[in-house]
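So, could you explain this one?
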Amino acid sequence: MIKSYVALALLSITAVVCTYIVQFYFRLNFVLSDRVSDWVNFSNFVGGLLAPIFSFLSFVLLLKSVNLQSQANTQLIEDAKNSAKKDNLQTFETHFFSMLEAQRITFDNFKLEIPLNNQSTVFVGVEGVIQLENYIQQMRNNGASNSQITEMLYDIDSSERIYNTIRIFYNITKMITERLENNQIYSVEERKSQFQTLINFTEFSLLRLVLISMQFCDYPPATYIKNNKEFTEVLIALGLEIDPY
């Protein structure tokens, strides 16, 4: 770009000098003068013609320089945002996977006492969720309403094992929503991608326990998860029902 302006300046100088030569040497038959004053007049003539041209070129170059500086500043700001986003994501992912691990450990120790064959039996982990689902299905077959199932769940969860398990899942969901808040840095698609990762990395039986709580319990964590529009949209997109029982 600079070379083109230099070429234009040289072309302008050549054109002015050639114009002078054509006018005074060829048309008016003037000869080269030995007088200093004539050469001063010649320089004034050339300078008078070239000054506006060079001033205009200087102005154009100034505008170009300002534009390039503006683009550089914009790129620096964008790079700073991307760097901050990258650092924030790294911090977020560290907490995210730590909480996923805490969720897994908690669910491994999950116990639930469920009435079975007229006696209470303790089930651990996945088996506890399966037996709870069977018990809910049995109540449904006997015509139980949502409120009756809710009452049963509160009775079974007197030691708050379901509540504490759901609360960890809720904390991860809330962290995704708040740490990747809707602004110019993070998009809805990026948050939904993290929700999808959460769902995929959560044991399916635990995820079913979350769905049970969302459908029947009014625990604050369960209510928050159910009212999280982006999370429920991801659930539906993955083929999971919001109220499956």
